[in-house]
Give the backbone structure.
Amino acid sequence: MTFAVLSGFLAAVVVPFLPRFGRYGTGRTVALVPAALTAYFGSYIQPVGAGETFRTSYAWAPALRVEFSLHLDGLGLLFALLVSGIGALVAIYAGGYLSGHRHLGRFYGFLLFFMASMLGVVLADNMLTLFVFWELTSLTSYLLIGFDHEREESRKAAWQALLVTGGGGLALLAGLLMLGEAAGTMELSELASRGGDVRSHALYLPILLLILLGAFTKSAQFPFHFWLPSAMEAPAPVSAYLHSATMVKAGVYLLARLSPAMAGTDAWWYLVTLGGTATMVCGAYLALCGTDLKRILAYSTVSALGVLVMLLGMGSVLAAQAAMVFLLAHALYKGALFMVAGAVDHETGSRDVDRLGGLWRAMPVTAAAAVLAALSMAGIAPFFGFLGKEMLLEASLESGGRWFLLPVVVLAGAVFVAVACMAGFRVFFGSSLPTPKQPHEAPLSLWLGPLLASAVGLALGLFASYAAAWIVSPAATAILGERTGHQPLKLALWHGLTPALALSGGSILLGLLVYANRGRILQMNRRLEVLLRHGPAWWYDLALGGLNRFALAQTRLLQTGYLRHYLLVIFAATVGLSGYVLIGSVELPARLLGPEIRFHEAALAGLLLLAALAAVRSSTRLAAVAALGVVGYGVALVFILYGAPDLAMTQFAIETLTVILLVLVLYRLPRYAVLSSRWVRIRDAAFALVTGATVTALVLAAVHGPAYESVSRYYAERSFAEAHGRNIVNVILVDFRALDTLGEITVLAVAAVGVHALLKLRPKNREDAA
Amino acid sequence: METLLAFVIGGLYASAVYLMLRRSLVKLVIGLALLSHGANLLIFTIGGLTRTRAPIIAEGDLVPAPPFADPLPQALILTAIVISFGVTAFAVVLLQRTYQAVGSDDLDRMKTTDT
Amino acid sequence: MTTVILRTAARYLLPLMLLFSVFLVLRGHHEPGGGFVGGLVASSSVILYALASGVRDAAHLLRTDPRMLIGAGLLLALASGLLSFFGGQPFMTGQWVSLVLPGMGEIHVGTPLVFDVGVYLVVLGTVLTIILSLLEQ
């Protein structure tokens, strides 16, 4: 299983080089990877349907409870099949859609990288493993939306999607860590049985809010829905794959996955159900008002995601089952419709539903795929979408007291019908309209994907009982956790005359009515537009602009460009912070110059102080360098006096070299000059004295304060016994802490290379300018 | 002696800070060198001073006979001394090249010079 | 600066100081010394020679660019740490062998010693790169 997830990453590295070996058939070659994965996951249908689960785990950072662990159960399997199956179709499709594109190889690399990340999300068991893959999907989504990186809208949309989902990801990380703390485990498979602990935990509400923030941004829930329509700047295969069938469902997946542990509280019900409902309504309305085929589909995707979230919020057995049926149906028909929209765009040069018509004559196969998908979307028997819609209605009917859900759901169903009419019928039937390009049938690669996807939608509907038993039921069981009881799902096209069936029929009629009156809705929308201008996207722009202005202002304030201002701030902060701690904690020793001080020690201290003063006061460079040398040799004497022969030797050698160095450069340096005014010099002197006094106080506090046991004892005991060295300082340098030393000699090497570069490598023209 | 050295370290820091706040680049470099001396002494003193006995195990012994100077601060300082040479050298050469390119060692004039 | 006395002295001092620097590295594990000090002493000797007889002569004496010494030293230090991988031990675990030399008794030779030689070469190369570049101006 680990290899299955990681194989996508491997393939993503190889694939970009494929186009060099042959122009044709790249799409089909690449599709082999997801197709093989589909077959692989398909082999798990039998055992998982029988109730088995599979888990593998590798230690990553066990002390932090981070493992690389994967877990396959019904829910994961359903998603894995969707990700790999639709991935195969999209790979073939992309080969036709972007055929001849000079970055096709790169595109495939991104696509497979995404697929592998998404598989990681739905199969991860450890929450941090999940988070890593989750962020990888955001990243690949960014790369794919911005694939046409030469267009500004593309870049802007990619950036927006990344900021929104990435921001949500940060919240999610915090939420997951807190959840892991509350539950006492980071493994999702163990989380299900700790629901009681989680729901009664004091931090339940913050955890829920943070996780919902992550899930809602990823799944484009209101008020974060705005990034998804913008993301339609991406090429059609990306919209079909990431932004309808798979990635945007990651948030839904997460909610489903966490349901056993977190669902069932009032907070969950209100936040999730109402969030989903708001999204559903908002997306449905905006879908009706669009004219761009892809945008219409994007808004209807937002609406469908709202439906899924709403169902997960309800928390009943029926709702969970409905969610899985609806999810499967939606992924199939929406993926197909997006691919159709791309094919239409590709062949006619337009995506405006009001300017397209009668295309079935020119593009019969594409039209067939579109009609099949649209029928499923509209919820017509015997398509799988019919079952999804009926179960949705039944779940809403069942929710009893919360009656207001039902009319909203019926209305959303009606909008789905209207959108299906626009995407599946309006474009292909009626009178032909002139298009920028002469329409003709799309190549095989462009219609195979959508046709297969919608055909699977039809097949699942016809063999609904098998789909229910083998795919949907195990998934729903995983969502419900302990609460499932044993209520196996039975799906059938005909249940008899039930209220749900009547409502379903009603919503179809209502949908046709809405579609017929589309012109009036558009007119009304124009009047409402003033109000809608200040939507979430407007706030997003405002916040982003504000952030940029704030960054600019604080940079101007803090980055003055004067070195001494930075130094002042650094020293002032050090003095302020350590001084604050030191005040009151320093007890000056009773006798500053105790009897233990010997004459030569006092003389040495005096010499050091005088030399430092001389370095400050000297008026020539040479005097300053000489004073500096005296300080250096004085320090070396201190090392000799206090048992540090190694240091003394090093210090003497370095001091000599430093003096040579300074003398060599000195002739080339400017003369000493007094550049600051008298007042500034007095101010700096006062500041320097305060800094010096603080450091003195710090040393006194450290020396006379409580003594802590040094690790040196450890080194002293083992120096000879284990490291075969009698000079402990040297043993520390070359054995105990050799890694540090390795870093330090690397720094030396870098400094030498820097000096060499500064002195030897001069561009010719600079030489002249100097 | 610790007390006395505390004042020496304070004096080194004060001189270093004052020099580093000057507009002249040369003084900045001298200040930097003084600061590294101060920092080395600071670590050395805080580690505790022991007269005469170096942290070296005598021939025939397995562990050093106490009291001996703390070897850890010494190991820290030893590399710091050598690295401060590298840093000083780099700073000095950078200063020299800057002076050649800009024709001034006044930091305030370099702020706007785009050469 | 270049006088006959200095030139002559430098010529005789150079081998002595180089020998002393090697001695410092080798005894550094037991007595004061080690790669850092050794490298500094060695570079001082070369610099003294360069001051006396000119950079060109000193560079000729080295036979190699001092930057090569830096690279060689870094590689040597790194390699001494990698050796422990062959025994399945963590990076930089010290490896020791005992050698019995006639007349000198038993001595331990180990990777930390090799590491110290790497330090010696890096320090030597760094100081020489810096000072010789400056002298050349």
Notes: The mean pLDDT of chain A is 86. Chain A touches chain C at residues 645-646, 649-650, 653-654, 656-657, 660-661, 664-665, 668, 723-727, 729-731, 733-735, 738-739, 741-742, 745-746, 748-749, 751-753, 755-756, 759-760 (CB under 8 Å). Residues 348 and 509 of chain A are 31 Å apart (CA to CA).
